[in-house]
Amino acid sequence: MVIRELAPNISVGAQINPEVLKSLAERGFTDIVCNRPDSEHPDGPVSEEVAKAAFDLGLTFHYLPIDPDEEPETQSAALAHIMAKPDRRIFAYCRTGGRSTMACKKTTVCTP
Fold first, then answer.
1. CA separation for the pair 112, 102 (Å, rounded)
2. Is 20 helix (H, G, I), strand (E, B) or coil?
3. CA-CA distances (angstroms) from residue 88 to 11, 69, 81, 95?
4. How many distinct structural domains can be found in the chain?
5. For 35-44, 53-62, 69-78, 96-105, which range has the lowest pLDDT when averaged over its residues?
6. Residue 67 domain-assigned (yes or no)
7. How far does CA 72 lie from the centroid of its chain?
8. 3-state secondary structure at position 76
9. 112 inside domain
10. What residues does 7 pair with on adjacent strands?
11. What domain range includes position 17?
12. Nearest-angstrom CA–CA distance, 53 and 69
């Protein structure tokens, strides 16, 4: 799995499945942000599956879906709110990591 750090407390990557969460928790991530809409791909794991696995590992899960042709204004504001919490280390994902990156870059925290 490729993990791209955008700021000290947020990294992004492509679609994950519940089995990957243990390694993310072991790497120190505290929050998982799903930017991929459940309806985007019928064969991919839905957010509910990932959320349950995250909860079982003590991770906080956030569902902030971004449609491929949408500007992520609302999601960026929500992401900035999550990032502002102390001691949070966030992993955000979508199909390729692109929309998660775009949402982060709209905050004032992530690197260009």
1. 9
2. helix
3. 11, 29, 11, 23
4. 1
5. 35-44
6. yes
7. 13
8. helix
9. no
10. 10
11. 4-105
12. 29
CATH of the domain at 25: 3.90.190.10
Helix axis angle, 73-83 to 98-105, nearest 10°: 70
- Number of Cβ within 10 Å of residue 92's Cβ equals 28
The answer to whether position 46 is within a domain reads yes
pLDDT tens track for 72-103: 989 999 999 999 998 999 999 999 999 999 99
What would the two tokens of residue 74 be?
A: 């609302």
* Rounded Cα–Cα distance for residues 71 and 99 (Å): 9
Tell whether the torsion through CA atoms of 55, 58, 62 and 67 is positive or negative.
Answer: negative
Phi-psi sector, 28: left (phi>0), alpha (psi -120 to 50), beta: left
The 4-7 sheet, strands edge to edge:
4-7, 10-13, 90-93, 31-34, 60-63
pTM (two decimals):
0.94
Confirm whether 110 is domain-assigned.
Answer: no
